[in-house]
Write a structure and sequence with these properties.
The structure is a single chain. The protein is built from three helices and 48 strands. It has a five-stranded antiparallel β-sheet with strand order 2-3-9-10-11, with no helix packed on it. A five-stranded antiparallel β-sheet has the order 6-5-4-8-7, with no helix packed on it. Strand 2 and strand 3 form a beta hairpin. The radius of gyration is 26 Å and the shape is globular. Helices cover 4% and strands 42% of the residues. The N and C termini lie far apart (65 Å). With 691 residues, it is mainly β.
Length: 691
């Protein structure tokens, strides 16, 4: 069945690939009628107000053409009739200079402010048919008059050199915001919030959306720190944070990699970090140290993973994930058991610093390091990591960009196809082997079927060493043999950050975003073949264990490349758990930043998912998601439940050397070391040495 399905997909792909021009850039003048020109901002598509349509959200800075040097604030006034705008010398100013102005003086309705270089938050609410209404929040300083912050855009905080991730943190059905950015041009997050955590150049904020649709600032539970060089949007955009319910308790947890910074007295301290933040169910989060490493005597890279027990002389795991930065990570069910595993790559504190780790979800709230010795993975840093079913066999595959070790530090564009044996075995296809991708560093990417031929394509941005092309955004469409071809219609725009979303309402994913102080749009012309998938059938929900709800359904066994999203909603309280936020009536996705957590199987005819829930009467729903991100409606069922508990499982590795009490490798010569406690490994023997 699998092979005949794949053949049908490939035949469909060859038929649709004959379509004409794929992308057409929209004239900038047309864009300015809809979207505010920006700089240093990252665009996100999210259904902020829950009306079933994806809105356009971004921060960044505006630079109006005000016939000045672009570095100063400009205040304007309308004339008594409000017909045009005047500057301080009563000279007429063109309308376009003030199209994106905000109220300059709350006491004077004729006073307007130009937002020159101001840090902003913009929500363009989708009205359908490619039409939008705009709200802006901003922070700026009138030169010499101190900083100001406006309160529009539903209270969403301004940001620059950063952006927004939306997810439902407290299961109230409203999207909340994880925000990251940088202080600039009068905007100081710590002064606005009182939340000083580290130096003032970068910040992380957390806002819950209330019942009135206003985003309210919360104490931030997440670590502050960037994951790339300071002045690159790069993979700050999407690859150093992941969202998913790792323990099936119904709440979305958060996984973060960064170079974490905090204040140590008057000084700034820092560390590499990979950390899992468990959702407590009330909009708060707690760091969960639940990572079991390969035993010390077999561990090839034990640094930062063990602490010495002075009494026993044993090295005991600290249960923390391997610290990394300048890399990427993802939640992904890599072994097909229905539970989210973790994969992360980047720069660690080891001598052999570039590292890649996979942690298997043990289904009891813990993870265990997978022994990757002899497997096909190649670690990278300055990296991007995304997952999707690249060959439509029902198993999640991995695509990784980044810088490899070795002569010339070559740029990777690796595809790892899942062998489907449940043992974390993958077959690697690299740039050097001719997979057709452009390797890239400081990259970000989306894996999606852009041309609706059933095959997953690759949209990426980064710095490539291919033909000295350098920085740029690229679309590689997948061929029927699993290789990729560059879409030359799209071109190779060298711009800070672009993203995928349907801007004009025709159902095809367009490319849009920051484009040299303008809002760039490349409209997808490939609208043939857009068709919603069939909804699942036979959706049922039963309580097979106390406090656990098992949802089952029949998917499309002719298309194992499809994925499935589900929700569980308490009919009395409105509490709702969703793998991926989506509109319950239409099935439209409300965000696209966590599609890798959707469920899949090589046999979609009999799928199940178990979730812990308290007592109550519930409605459940399951929908289908295709590779082009089109969705079916939800097929629904109802059930009542009572309360309960959870389950367990285990894995191993090999190495020899001398380590300090923190697990850091010190070499092989004990005589060359000073005083202290040391752990000496020889083969599988471990000896405590005190000097």
């Amino acid at each position: 069945m699998k092979h005949s399905t794949l053949l049908m997909t490939l035949l469909l792909g060859s038929a649709l690939s004959a379509q004409a021009q794929s992308f057409k850039q929209v004239e900038q003048e047309q864009n300015q009628e809809k979207f505010m020109p920006l700089h240093r901002g990252i665009v996100t598509f999210a259904d902020v107000n829950g009306d079933g349509k994806l809105d356009v959200v971004y921060g960044g800075q505006y630079r109006p053409d005000n016939d000045k040097d672009g570095s100063g604030d400009v205040t304007f006034k309308t004339d008594p009739e409000g017909n045009y705008v005047l500057d301080g010398t009563d000279n007429k100013i063109l309308e376009k200079h003030t199209k994106w102005a905000v109220q300059g003086d709350a006491e004077d309705p004729n006073s307007w402010f130009s937002l020159s270089w101001a840090c902003t938050a913009n929500i363009f609410f989708n009205q359908g048919g490619g039409n939008y209404t705009h709200e802006v929040a901003s922070s700026w300083h009138h030169w010499g008059e101190g900083a100001r912050t406006s309160t529009e855009a539903h209270g969403l905080l301004p940001t620059t050199w950063g952006g927004y991730h939306f997810f439902d943190a407290n299961n109230d059905g409203r999207l909340d915001a994880y925000i990251y950015g940088q202080d600039e041009w009068g905007w100081k997050f710590s002064e606005y919030s009182g939340q000083k955590v580290g130096d003032d150049t970068q910040y992380v904020a957390f806002q819950l959306q209330n019942a009135e649709g206003i985003f309210e600032l919360q104490p931030c539970p997440f670590p502050k720190g960037g994951n790339e060089n300071t002045y690159s949007l790069g993979n700050r955009a999407n690859s150093s944070i992941a969202f998913g319910d790792y323990d099936h308790d119904g709440y979305t947890d958060v996984l973060i990699q960064c170079y974490h910074k905090w204040m140590d007295g008057e000084d700034v301290a820092g560390e590499r970090l990979v950390a899992l933040y468990h959702n407590n169910g009330d909009g708060t989060f707690t760091q969960a140290n639940v990572f079991k490493p390969i035993p010390f005597e077999q561990n090839q890279k034990p640094a930062d993973l063990f602490e010495a027990n002075v009494e026993s002389g044993q090295m005991e795991p600290n249960m923390k994930a391997k610290p990394m930065s300048h890399g990427a990570l993802a939640f992904a069910d890599l072994n097909g058991d229905g539970w989210l595993d973790i994969i992360t790559t980047g720069w660690s504190n080891d001598d052999d610093a570039i590292s890649l780790y996979i942690y298997e979800n043990k289904q009891d709230g813990t993870f265990e390091e997978v022994n990757l010795e002899g497997k096909s993975f190649a670690a990278v840093y300055e990296s991007e990591l995304q997952v999707a079913d690249m060959n439509n066999d029902g198993w999640l595959d991995i695509v990784i960009f980044g810088t490899q070790s070795g002569e010339g530090m070559p740029k990777a564009g690796d595809v790892y196809l899942n062998d489907g044996d449940g043992e974390f075995n993958f077959t690697r296809s690299s740039v050097g082997q001719g997979n057709g991708l452009y390797g890239a560093s400081a990259a970000y990417a989306n894996l999606v079927d852009i041309n609706h031929d059933g095959l997953v394509d690759v949209f990426s941005y980064g710095w490539t060493d291919v033909e000295e092309k350098g920085w740029g955004a690229r679309i590689h469409t997948q061929n029927t043999d699993g290789t990729f071809s560059l879409d030359t219609d799209f071109g190779d725009p060298n711009t800070a950050y672009l993203t995928l979303g349907d801007v004009n309402g025709d159902g095809a994913l367009d490319v849009s975003g920051d484009y040299w102080f303008d809002f760039g749009i490349w409209e997808n012309q490939l609208t043939d073949g857009i068709e919603a998938p069939d909804a699942p059938t036979n959706v049922k929900a039963v309580q097979e264990e106390r406090g656990k709800l098992t949802i089952s359904w029949t998917g499309d066994d002719m298309n194992p490349g499809n994925a499935y999203n589900l929700y569980v909603k308490n009919k009395e309280t409105g509490w709702i758990s969703q793998l991926i936020p989506a509109d319950l009536e239409t099935g439209a996705l409300r965000t696209t930043n966590a599609l890798g957590v959707a469920l899949r199987s090589e046999d979609p005819s009999a799928m199940t998912y178990t979730i812990s829930v308290p007592d109550g009467n519930y409605e459940v729903g399951v929908q289908t998601i295709k590779n082009d991100w089109t969705t079916s409606t939800f097929t629904k069922a109802e059930v009542g439940v009572a309360d309960g508990i959870q389950t367990t499982k285990a894995i191993q590795y090999d190495a020899t050397s001398i380590y300090d009490a923190n697990g850091r490798q010190l070499g092989a010569d004990i005589d060359g070391l000073g005083r202290g406690l040391f752990i000496v490994k020889k083969g599988n023997q471990v000896t405590k040495v005190i000097k």
